[in-house]
């Protein structure tokens, strides 16, 4: 088999056979297929797409390219959640603790942020001592013991994806549905989970900007899950404005803990309860979403979710005292207000630009090897639909530098004040 023939076939709109897909993935991992030919096939897939069978086979071959975690020794149905990424999206943190508190094992392998989107691992590393890298056996043992672990990719999970993604990033083929879907699902299948709820974001701060794009991605992910025997469903949620009231690593841990204490922002809590109710049903701890929601609400009321979060932090080497003392985490030197220039209603607050502002303060990465300033970020005092008076603070800029005129200019450019508008819906569609 020749790689040039595989490229030619897909370039002309043909369906790749299972053997051709295996040949491609094996060649990427071994290094026998040069980058320029891999890039050529990725571009062909970008323009010619893949059908459902091709997508599933690509996912399976990428999964089989490395290790697969065996969680069969952990009792119960293991349920995970994945998000396609956004700004202020700390959902995984309170969600995992609440679901684990119902008795469902939650083995979560998460990622880091890049660009305007935040990463779950970066947020957790704002907690002194927290280790996101633990051995595969320690991960399994912790899920069995504590019902919860949130770590970075362990061992040799889907090495084909790592090589392919690096080329997608530099060849402008990132936003291809078959390539996105196979990348996400190969890692989730390899992580050993039984069921998966996917939070597909849509809007200004999301990877997919429009609802039709987001729906197409959600349907592709769910279809792959079904074809490989995984229980899988997706929620399409809003990312036109940041989620919650805080953007930044320490700030989002604070908001996570506030949520687990019953005083978090309503939009964050609503999305957590929506996603969590599906996870609890998939985990067979409740017969329907209403019953599951009530169970999750009780984990906040009785403190069991907060206890699960603290237990996870301590198990992974973190300082459990942060649950009660936020001052143990890094914080910015300056808190600078952004006053409204006129009175009216906030009619727009573009999530991606708020994320870029946090990144430029040092809270995110422009390049993969950038160092983070965990204490910086943005606090949202107003959100879309809120009334504001001239001079009233729209946002608080948490910064380690006093001169933030560039950040103010960026933020003023992404916020509009005008007539009253309805807030964005939190959830647009459920895909099963």
From TrEMBL:
Signal peptide start-end: none
Record flagged with keyword Glycosyltransferase: yes
Pfam families given in the database record: Glycos_trans_3N (PF02885), Glycos_transf_3 (PF00591), PYNP_C (PF07831)
Keywords: Glycosyltransferase, Transferase
InterPro entries: Glycosyl_Trfase_fam3, Glycosyl_Trfase_fam3_N_dom, Glycosyl_Trfase_fam3_N_dom_sf, Nuc_phospho_transferase, PYNP-like_C_sf, PYNP_C, Pyrmidine_PPas_bac/euk, Pyrmidine_PPase_CS
Domain of life of the native organism: Bacteria
GO cellular component, one term: cytosol
Enzyme class, UniProt record, top EC level: transferase
MF-aspect GO terms: 1,4-alpha-oligoglucan phosphorylase activity; thymidine phosphorylase activity
EC number: 2.4.2.2
Domain Pyrimidine nucleoside phosphorylase C-terminal: residue ranges: 345-418
GO biological process, one term: pyrimidine nucleobase metabolic process
Record family assignment: Belongs to the thymidine/pyrimidine-nucleoside phosphorylase family.
Subunit structure: Homodimer.
Protein name, as recorded: Pyrimidine-nucleoside phosphorylase
Organism: Bifidobacterium bohemicum DSM 22767
């Amino acid at each position: 088999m020749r790689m040039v023939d595989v490229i030619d076939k897909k370039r002309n709109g043909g369906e790749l056979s299972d053997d051709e897909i295996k040949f491609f993935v094996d060649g990427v991992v071994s290094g026998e297929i040069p980058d320029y030919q891999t890039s050529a096939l990725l571009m062909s897939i970008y323009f010619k797409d893949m059908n459902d069978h091709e997508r599933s086979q690509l996912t399976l071959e990428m999964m089989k390219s490395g290790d697969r975690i065996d969680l069969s020794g952990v009792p119960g149905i293991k349920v995970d959640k994945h998000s396609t990424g956004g700004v202020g999206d700390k959902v995984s943190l309170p969600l995992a603790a609440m679901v684990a508190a119902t008795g469902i094992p939650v083995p979560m392998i998460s990622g880091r942020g890049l660009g305007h989107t935040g990463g779950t691992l970066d947020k957790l590393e704002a907690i002194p001592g927290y280790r996101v890298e633990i051995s595969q056996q320690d991960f399994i043992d912790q899920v069995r013991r504590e019902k919860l672990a949130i770590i970075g990719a362990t061992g040799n999970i889907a090495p084909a994806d790592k090589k392919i993604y690096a080329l997608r990033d530099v060849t402008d083929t990132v936003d291809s549905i078959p390539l996105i879907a196979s990348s996400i699902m190969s890692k989730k299948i390899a992580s050993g989970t039984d069921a998966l709820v996917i939070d597909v974001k849509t809007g200004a701060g999301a990877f997919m900007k429009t609802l039709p794009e987001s729906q197409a991605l959600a349907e592709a992910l769910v279809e792959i899950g079904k074809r490989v025997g995984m229980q899988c469903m997706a929620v399409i949620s809003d990312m036109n404005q940041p989620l919650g009231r805080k953007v930044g690593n320490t700030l989002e841990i604070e908001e996570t803990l506030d949520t687990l204490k019953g005083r978090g922002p309503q939009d964050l809590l609503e999305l957590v309860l929506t996603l969590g109710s599906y996870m609890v049903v998939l985990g067979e701890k409740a017969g329907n979403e209403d019953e599951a929601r009530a169970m999750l609400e009780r984990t906040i009321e009785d403190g069991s979710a907060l206890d699960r979060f603290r237990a996870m932090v301590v198990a992974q080497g973190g300082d459990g005292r942060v649950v009660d003392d936020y001052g143990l985490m890094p914080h910015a030197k300056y808190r600078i207000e952004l006053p409204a220039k006129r009175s009216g209603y906030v009619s727009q607050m573009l999530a991606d630009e708020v994320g870029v502002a946090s990144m430029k303060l040092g809270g995110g990465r422009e390049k993969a090897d950038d160092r983070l300033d965990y204490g910086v970020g943005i606090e949202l005092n107003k959100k879309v639909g809120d009334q504001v008076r001239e001079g009233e603070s729209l946002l608080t800029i948490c910064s380690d530098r006093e001169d933030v005129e560039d950040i103010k200019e960026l933020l003023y450019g992404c916020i509009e004040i005008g007539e009253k508008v309805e807030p964005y819906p939190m959830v647009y569609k459920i895909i099963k």
